[in-house]
Amino acid sequence: MVKLTRIYTRTGDTGQTGLGDGSRVAKTDHRVASYGTVDELNALLGVCRLHAGPELDDALARIQNDLFDVGADLCTPEMDDPPYEPLRVVTGQVEWLEAEIDRVNAGLETLRSFVLPAGSPAAAHLHHARTVARRAERETAALATGAPINVLVLQYLNRLSDYLFVLAREANHEAGGDVLWQPGEHR
């Protein structure tokens, strides 16, 4: 159980922060950028929930909780002999996203053009969240070039951006349809 009795600690006042294993790194470290973007994505999903019906709200609430797992995984470097069992993303979390993508996509029309990130308020916010998920994935991939990470984190973030895409399409389907790119329309 997490217990926070004090919000400010002053330990980060010099540009350093603590990781899950107790080590200290610069706040500009790839690891911090990675889980910081996951946190940003989580906050944006809170905005998406303002525009969600009950079923979508439940799915986004689950994802928000899973994103805390992602952040915990990213902030705890891989250790040979950890003093405790670190929280790691598991295959079931990725598989849930895949099943959801398939379920939602089955009810959508086949795409014949790229989709503009627009439409209903819910769709626009979900598209925004999708782009932040992609940035979190890129930052995590950058982290992985210099440090070992749980590969399931990258898979989760990749599937999450796909899921947010089909959710945005579903939101637009319910509001009249996707906003499609018209190549060269204004040439």
Show the helix and strand layout.
Blueprint: E1 16-18, E2 24-26, H1 30-49, H2 54-75, H3 91-106, H4 121-144, H5 151-174
Antiparallel strand pairs: 1-2
Structural write-up:
- The chain is mainly alpha-helical and 187 residues long.
- Helices cover 57% and strands 3% of the residues.
- It has five helices and two strands, in the order ββααααα.
- Strands 1-2 form a two-stranded antiparallel ribbon.
- α3 (91-106) packs parallel to α5 (151-174) and α4 (121-144) runs antiparallel to α5 (151-174).
- Write down the CATH topology: Hypothetical Protein Ta1238, Chain: A
Count of the domains? 1
What is the H/E string? Answer: EEHHHHH
Give the N-to-C terminal Cα separation.
59 Å
Q: Judging from the principal axes of the Cα atoms, what is the shape?
A: elongated
CATH architectural grouping: Up-down Bundle
Order of strands in the sheet with the most strands? 1-2
From the alpha-carbon coordinates, what is the Rg to the nearest angstrom? 18 Å
The CATH superfamily is Cobalamin adenosyltransferase-like
Instruction: Look at the helices and sheets and give the structural class.
Output: mainly alpha
Q: Can you count the helices?
A: 5
**Average predicted confidence as pLDDT:** 93
Largest sheet: 2 strands, antiparallel
- Binned strand content: under 5%
Q: Class in CATH?
A: Mainly Alpha
Helix content: 55-70%
* Count of strand segments: 2
Q: What ranges have pLDDT less than 50 throughout 5 or more consecutive residues?
A: none
